[in-house]
User: Fold this.
Amino acid sequence: MKRVAVLTSGGDAPGMNAAVRSVTRSAIFRGLEVVGVRRGYEGLLEGDLIPLTKSSVGGIIHRGGTILRTARSDRFRRPEGINEAVQQLKSFDIDGLVVIGGDGSFRGAWELVDRGFPVVGVPATIDNDIAGTDMTIGFDTAINTALEAVKKIRDTASSHDRLFIIEVMGREAGFLALEVAVASGAECVLVPERPVELGRLCDKLHYARNRGKTHSLIILAEGVMAAHELAEQLLDTGGYDSRITVLGHLQRGGSPTAFDAVLASRMGTAALEGLLEGQKGVMAVYRHGGMELVPLSLAWEQKKRLNHELLDLVEKLSI
Ligand code: F6P
Assistant:
């Protein structure tokens, strides 16, 4: 293997740059040439490649977003697009590819592997919804970003004796909502993995009010319903007046936490070394404190289970 490429794909996540730096520097350390593909698979189809050097990845470890930029490509989802992508990789003399992204990006990576091209994945998404790894790059930063916002909302909620609904990201998974709820001491958390019981939620708010709690925070994952819908339902069902805050894309930005910068550095190097050892169709994951390579297919074949101990903890600790 002489020349490897790296790309970021899907939603950006804090720490992606640290992963790009890690892949690049460890490849150069092993005597390889490195190119960066800009705008994910879309850029690959357009041949939008740039050389990456020791210095071009300098000063990016702490930067949010991705210097390679990212995209969600419709063209790459079609078989002709995938075949074209393999041709592009070959025409640029690339021997292996590292894909940094989430489950959609890994399905794409698998299509390349299926056509004989070596690819190793690095799981990066603020959703943490990839089975096989305890943590994905960006998750820890997003928790902390959301938590900072929730702490500020708590100040105003307690000053005005108000009920707040704070909507966090997570269309299909409640990992972010759950961690934020536990860390902020929220009264309730609503996640896509568990059906909403509005009656129970109202009882809980009622009980809290009766025993003198003057303000309450509900952390809502966006995949459950929109915050304004929940506000309407709480008003109709229990007469609860609430305020809402939708944290939105601010959760995807910012400098990675130390944890994410370290995780990304470890995963990037583990992925590159995996490629050099002849591995393909695997991703570099973090399990029980260490790095491992596991099949990429876990990302779409297995649903990562939410930690029910944490769900119970929100209940127990908000009495
Ligand atoms: O997958 C990461 C994520 O941030 C989700 O939490 C969110 O639902 C989605 O991406 C938003 O995607 P987009 O930026 O394309 O609207």
Remarks:
- The chain has eleven helices and eleven strands.
- The two ends are 59 Å apart (CA to CA).
